[in-house]
Amino acid sequence: MYVNLVPSALELVWPLNMQTVLPTPDTLGRTVIVFRTGSWLPEVCGLDEVFRSQVLILEHVVRVPVTQLRGVAAVVDCAGLSMTHAYYLTPTHIRRMISVIQEVFPLRFKALHFVNEPSIFDWVFSLIKPFLSETIKGRLHFHGEDLSSLHQHVPPQHLPQELGGEAGPMDNSTLVQNLRKHEDYFREHFSYGFETCEEPGRTGTMMEAVSDMGSLIGSYYRRMCID
């Protein structure tokens, strides 16, 4: 999962334009990450690759001191979310993603905004909810199709037009360019403290792998004061 975790290894993901980081913060000064679930095409790249790309983006934004202090606000656009996507969302994937948000990554998720939730969202969220801490549950915002509600938290002039914003169509090209520019940094960073075992008989749970990831990232940021 975390072997060869560099931008060049995820070239199938970036053209889908699923994720971006807004150039300006939300109303509370937090870095805003946008994720569009409906843009994911399972026939193009797997959920593991999407997850790997998210880890890279988080690693990219956490290097900014103000993000370390104020945290991140995520906007999840659920337009286009379908049973085809939900089919690939196994308990293993859910536990892995939630562990990164709640336990592993040295970054505070201060708000998670969901918009354009289709009918299937309730079922998907029922799978996710049992894994969420009370703290994270208290930071969830469900806006439905009321984008004006979202705009109270993230000014529309900073949002892409897909989210009722004034910043033009969503475009991840600047983000991807910045990620590629730091290819060597990611290659070196993720080489510390994590060993790959190629033995076919190796045993271990996915949560143990996630724990390894936490040790890797946590040791790097131990000097930072992040709650």
UniProtKB/TrEMBL annotation:
Tree of life domain: Eukaryota
SUPFAM superfamilies: CRAL/TRIO domain (SSF52087)
Source organism per UniProt: Petrolisthes cinctipes
Domain CRAL-TRIO span(s) in chain numbering: 9-171
Pfam family, one: CRAL_TRIO
Protein name per Swiss-Prot or TrEMBL: CRAL-TRIO domain-containing protein
One Gene Ontology MF term: phosphatidylinositol bisphosphate binding
InterPro entries on file: CRAL-TRIO_dom (IPR001251), CRAL-TRIO_dom_sf (IPR036865)
Gene3D superfamilies cross-referenced by the UniProt entry: Alpha-tocopherol transfer (1.20.5.1200), CRAL-TRIO lipid binding domain (3.40.525.10)
GO cellular component, one term: membrane
